[in-house]
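Is nicotinamide-adenine-dinucleotide placement plausible here? Inputs below.
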Amino acid sequence: MGRLAGKVAVVFGGARGIGLATVKEFLAEGAIVFASDIREPVEDIPGYSIVDATDEGQVGAFVDGVIAEAGRIDVLFNNVGIHLGKSLVDTTLAEFDDIFALNVRAAFLGTRAVLPHMIERKAGSIITTSSNGGVMGRPGDPVYNATKHALVGLTKSIAVAHAHQGIRANTVNPGAIDTDMLRGTLASPEEFETKQHQLVASTPAARVGEAWEVAKAVVFLASDESRFVNGVVLPIDGAKAAGAMPGNRYSLDFELGVR
Ligand SMILES: NC(=O)c1ccc[n+]([C@@H]2O[C@H](COP(=O)([O-])OP(=O)(O)OC[C@H]3O[C@@H](n4cnc5c(N)ncnc54)[C@H](O)[C@@H]3O)[C@@H](O)[C@H]2O)c1
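Reply from A.M.:
I modeled the complex. Tokens:
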């Protein structure tokens, strides 16, 4: 029997990358999955919906629809995110507002829509994708990192406030994972190949990660195997957040554009 057999899971940001890998792991572990994203999925996913996770009305209607159809929500995966690889002085106010209005707002709206239902049922696991940038400073993407720190604060506070009601809230904090987002932070596929050595140099495991390696950790946090794990920030990063690698600061990843 699957580790998520019979559990109803809602996923925001499930069209590709870490989100899609998690949808596939959830399905393989027996969950009933309601995946969503603002874009069409790159693979066919049963029960898929187009939802803008920053739109209060769309998020509410989607969550209400899942509860009407499935009767409950056991697992919420807040995975929506965009990256901004700019130094602080180069970041415009509009860019600052936009990334907070996406990365933080989406997790707020998704969680706020599902939480009353979980409180009523006295059960639920909420997992939010933060980042290495949610636990450590990085030179090249300070505002993105601020949004990912905000998700850690949100998650820990939910855990503390609602643990007594049977609700768990945890973050996964990926390091460099080979997805469209990572490749999109670079100018070209060729640049990805050239910059790989920098990503690898700043990762003690000496490689970038795969989306499924994050998905496996999300499954654990979604499952009852982690029933006493609450308010945790879980790096999935080949030890990158555990400490600085010796070397030139300009070999750190995301140093692009930072002088
Ligand atoms: N790839 C990495 O190296 C890495 C590292 C740390 C954290 N993360 C985080 O992991 C998560 C997934 O990233 P990924 O690497 O799979 O990249 P990705 O770009 O493939 O996934 C992000 C998903 O969010 C969706 N999305 C964007 N705006 C949306 C909106 N308004 N409503 C609904 N969906 C929306 C995108 O369509 C996309 O499918 C993100 O939160 C990202 O910040 C990624």
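Short version: Residues 8-178+210-241 form a domain with the Rossmann fold fold (CATH 3.40.50.720).
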